[in-house]
Protein backbone atom coordinates (compact mmCIF):
# COMPACT_ATOMS: atom_id res chain seq x y z
CA UNK A 1 0.00 0.00 0.00
CA UNK A 2 1.10 3.55 -0.62
CA UNK A 3 1.13 6.46 1.81
CA UNK A 4 -2.66 6.86 1.87
CA UNK A 5 -3.05 3.65 3.94
CA UNK A 6 -3.09 4.29 7.68
CA UNK A 7 -1.58 1.81 10.10
CA UNK A 8 -2.96 1.54 13.61
CA UNK A 9 -0.53 0.71 16.39
CA UNK A 10 -3.05 -0.67 18.86
CA UNK A 11 -0.63 -0.90 21.79
CA UNK A 12 0.22 2.80 21.46
CA UNK A 13 -3.27 3.95 20.42
CA UNK A 14 -1.55 5.63 17.47
CA UNK A 15 -2.37 6.02 13.78
CA UNK A 16 0.43 6.60 11.26
CA UNK A 17 0.82 7.01 7.52
CA UNK A 18 3.92 5.04 6.46
CA UNK A 19 5.32 5.76 3.00
CA UNK A 20 4.86 2.12 1.99
CA UNK A 21 3.27 -0.85 3.74
CA UNK A 22 3.32 -4.53 2.82
CA UNK A 23 1.03 -7.14 4.30
CA UNK A 24 0.82 -10.89 3.81
CA UNK A 25 -2.31 -12.98 3.87
CA UNK A 26 -5.69 -11.46 4.53
CA UNK A 27 -5.68 -7.79 5.44
CA UNK A 28 -7.10 -6.86 8.82
CA UNK A 29 -8.70 -3.43 9.00
CA UNK A 30 -10.05 -1.34 11.86
CA UNK A 31 -13.48 -1.08 10.25
CA UNK A 32 -15.33 -1.47 6.96
CA UNK A 33 -13.78 1.68 5.47
CA UNK A 34 -10.66 -0.42 4.68
CA UNK A 35 -8.32 2.54 5.17
CA UNK A 36 -6.57 1.56 8.43
CA UNK A 37 -4.45 -1.58 8.38
CA UNK A 38 -3.77 -3.58 11.55
CA UNK A 39 -1.38 -6.27 10.28
CA UNK A 40 1.59 -4.85 8.33
CA UNK A 41 4.57 -7.13 7.75
CA UNK A 42 6.94 -4.57 6.21
CA UNK A 43 6.91 -0.81 6.74
CA UNK A 44 9.06 1.50 4.64
CA UNK A 45 9.74 5.13 5.48
CA UNK A 46 11.55 7.57 3.18
CA UNK A 47 13.68 9.81 5.35
CA UNK A 48 13.42 13.58 5.10
CA UNK A 49 15.03 16.29 7.23
CA UNK A 50 11.70 16.99 8.94
CA UNK A 51 10.82 13.35 9.74
CA UNK A 52 14.12 11.47 10.10
CA UNK A 53 14.49 11.85 13.84
CA UNK A 54 10.91 10.72 14.50
CA UNK A 55 11.12 7.84 11.97
CA UNK A 56 14.27 6.51 13.66
CA UNK A 57 13.12 7.10 17.23
CA UNK A 58 9.62 7.28 18.61
CA UNK A 59 7.87 6.10 15.45
CA UNK A 60 10.03 2.98 15.21
CA UNK A 61 9.42 2.40 18.91
CA UNK A 62 5.69 2.43 18.24
CA UNK A 63 6.03 0.18 15.19
CA UNK A 64 7.93 -2.40 17.24
CA UNK A 65 4.70 -2.92 19.22
CA UNK A 66 2.92 -4.28 16.13
CA UNK A 67 3.05 -8.08 16.49
CA UNK A 68 2.90 -8.77 12.73
CA UNK A 69 5.70 -6.36 11.78
CA UNK A 70 8.81 -8.25 10.64
CA UNK A 71 10.86 -5.63 8.78
CA UNK A 72 11.30 -1.87 8.94
CA UNK A 73 13.20 0.00 6.22
CA UNK A 74 14.52 3.54 6.24
CA UNK A 75 15.31 4.89 2.77
CA UNK A 76 17.66 7.83 2.32
CA UNK A 77 16.78 10.63 -0.09
CA UNK A 78 20.34 11.98 -0.23
CA UNK A 79 22.28 8.90 -1.34
CA UNK A 80 21.61 5.29 -2.29
CA UNK A 81 21.33 3.88 1.21
CA UNK A 82 18.70 1.71 2.90
CA UNK A 83 18.71 0.67 6.54
CA UNK A 84 16.88 -2.55 7.40
CA UNK A 85 15.65 -3.75 10.76
CA UNK A 86 14.53 -7.40 10.95
CA UNK A 87 12.63 -8.82 13.91
CA UNK A 88 14.21 -12.05 15.09
CA UNK A 89 12.27 -14.99 16.51
CA UNK A 90 13.25 -13.89 20.04
CA UNK A 91 11.76 -10.42 19.40
CA UNK A 92 15.10 -8.61 19.07
CA UNK A 93 15.74 -6.44 16.04
CA UNK A 94 18.74 -7.06 13.78
CA UNK A 95 20.20 -4.13 11.84
CA UNK A 96 21.76 -4.26 8.39
CA UNK A 97 22.20 -1.69 5.69
CA UNK A 98 22.95 -1.44 2.00
CA UNK A 99 24.84 1.41 0.36
CA UNK A 100 25.46 2.17 -3.31
CA UNK A 101 23.53 1.53 -6.48
CA UNK A 102 25.02 -1.97 -6.79
CA UNK A 103 23.71 -3.01 -3.37
CA UNK A 104 20.72 -5.23 -2.72
CA UNK A 105 18.39 -5.49 0.27
CA UNK A 106 16.93 -8.91 0.97
CA UNK A 107 13.45 -8.72 2.50
CA UNK A 108 13.27 -12.20 3.95
CA UNK A 109 9.81 -11.76 5.49
CA UNK A 110 8.23 -11.43 2.04
CA UNK A 111 10.86 -13.31 0.00
CA UNK A 112 11.79 -10.23 -2.01
CA UNK A 113 15.06 -8.88 -3.38
CA UNK A 114 15.24 -5.10 -3.61
CA UNK A 115 18.09 -3.74 -5.79
CA UNK A 116 18.97 -0.17 -4.86
CA UNK A 117 19.46 0.54 -8.57
CA UNK A 118 15.69 0.04 -8.97
CA UNK A 119 14.72 1.95 -5.83
CA UNK A 120 16.74 4.96 -7.01
CA UNK A 121 16.16 4.43 -10.75
CA UNK A 122 15.08 7.98 -11.59
CA UNK A 123 17.01 9.77 -8.84
CA UNK A 124 20.04 11.94 -9.53
CA UNK A 125 22.48 12.52 -6.68
CA UNK A 126 25.20 15.08 -6.22
CA UNK A 127 28.50 13.43 -7.26
CA UNK A 128 29.86 13.19 -3.73
CA UNK A 129 26.56 11.73 -2.35
CA UNK A 130 26.48 8.49 -4.33
CA UNK A 131 27.88 6.42 -1.46
Mind explaining what this structure looks like?
It contains 3 helices and 10 strands; from the N terminus they run βββββααβββββα. β7 and β8 form a beta hairpin. The protein has 131 residues and is mainly β. The radius of gyration is 15 Å and the shape is globular. Helix content is 11%, strand content 34%. The strands form 3 sheets. Strands 3-5-6-7-8 form a 5-stranded mixed beta sheet. It has helices spanning 52-56, 58-63, 116-119; strands at residues 6-9, 14-16, 20-22, 36-37, 42-46, 71-75, 81-87, 93-99, 104-107, 112-115.
Tag the structure with descriptive keywords.
5-stranded mixed sheet, 11% helix, 3 helices, mainly beta, globular, 131 residues, 10 strands, 3-stranded mixed sheet
Give me a quick take on this structure:
It is built from 3 helices and 10 strands.
